[in-house]
Design goal:
about 290 residues, alpha/beta, six-stranded mixed sheet, six-stranded parallel sheet, globular, binds nicotinamide-adenine-dinucleotide
Length: about 290
């Protein structure tokens, strides 16, 4: 590292709180070094009320760009100069690129990472019918990107908790922004008849809830009887690496069983490309940092 840092080194960063556990500095610094890029990446613990101060400082310091994790994603989207179509629709961004003129563009790469992870497992989403479980941050990014990338139908399911209204808003936003989509709906996850008929007729089932995440490792987001071989099943949960849902999908012979860790890798790779214009050495990063 000391051999790489010099008077011209461009700074990239992560903001959010907490950030100490993040794998992003290791992933980006490894990739910068591997590609011989004169850049360095640091994480800064920034509570949401300090987001504006951090962004003002980044403007002054002329950083190359930065990533944003919770709880700063929505506030950052309000503060940057422009937003990508996905970030605009989600109302949050996880990546900001500082353009040559110093202005800032906010992007949301979680949905891009999700779609790329599916593709890496042989699953295309264009023209497909998706059942999406969840209406939180990850689910919203996935719903928006899937709609922008041309899925035919999205049936969103969530339990009637504090996140449900967010799903109603997402449905409304997608209907307005992507009028070509055949159907987008929001339903109660506890309505088993509607859930069963939606899963029976869909191509891809996505879990974007916390069900299955440690310490809820034993929780299935849907009854395992709904899994069948024609279905591709994807999870966003990556802790544990193989969730109960993914294990059951494999046991049932589903045509694909896609764990969430690849989404984490590919959302980072998408940000890396926005920052540098180059491909991240994704395979090596996966083996070194995410296995
Ligand atoms: P969030 O807090 O914004 O949303 C939580 C969602 O889970 C809501 O829809 C809520 O209703 C639902 N939920 C919570 N407990 C549930 C339960 N027991 N049964 C059914 N639904 C339940 O969270 P988020 O940021 O969207 O994260 C959700 C999951 O996705 C987490 O496991 C997170 O680690 C993971 N995630 C993965 C990636 C990735 O790159 N793979 C990216 C973002 C988030």
């Amino acid at each position: 590292m000391e051999q790489r840092i010099n008077g011209h080194t461009r700074l990239y960063a992560l903001i959010g709180s907490p950030v100490g556990h993040s794998g992003s500095p290791a992933m980006y610094n490894y990739s910068f070094a591997k590609l011989g890029l004169d850049c360095a990446y640091l994480a800064f613990d920034i509570p949401v009320e300090k987001t504006k101060d951090a962004i003002d400082a980044f403007r002054t310091l002329n950083v190359g760009g930065f990533n944003i994790t919770m709880p700063d994603k929505t506030e950052t989207a309000r503060l940057v100069d422009r937003l990508s179509p996905a970030a605009e629709l989600v109302g949050a961004c996880n990546t900001v690129v500082v353009e040559d003129d110093g202005t800032m563009t906010g992007h949301m790469t979680d949905g891009v990472g999700f779609v790329r992870n599916l593709k890496e497992h042989g699953v295309e989403i264009k023209g497909q019918k998706i059942v999406l479980l969840g209406t939180g941050g990850a689910a919203t990014a996935i719903a928006v990107q899937a709609a922008l990338d041309g899925v035919d139908e999205i049936a969103i399911f969530n339990r009637k908790d504090e996140f449900y209204a967010n799903g109603e808003k997402t449905v409304e936003k997608i209907r307005n922004a992507v009028p070509g989509i055949k159907s987008v709906s929001i339903n109660d996850l506890d309505d088993m008849d509607t859930l069963k008929s939606a899963v029976d007729r869909c191509d891809i089932l996505v879990n974007a809830t916390r069900a299955g995440m440690s310490p809820m490792e034993d929780v299935m987001p849907v009854p395992e009887e709904l899994l069948r071989p024609e279905l591709a099943v994807a999870d966003v949960v990556y802790n544990p690496r193989e969730t109960l849902l993914i294990r059951k999908a494999k046991e049932k012979g589903c045509r694909a069983a896609v764990p969430g860790i690849g989404m984490l890798l590919w959302q980072g790779a998408a940000a890396f490309e926005l920052f540098t214009g180059q491909d991240m050495p994704a395979q090596e990063v996966m083996e070194k940092f995410f296995s």
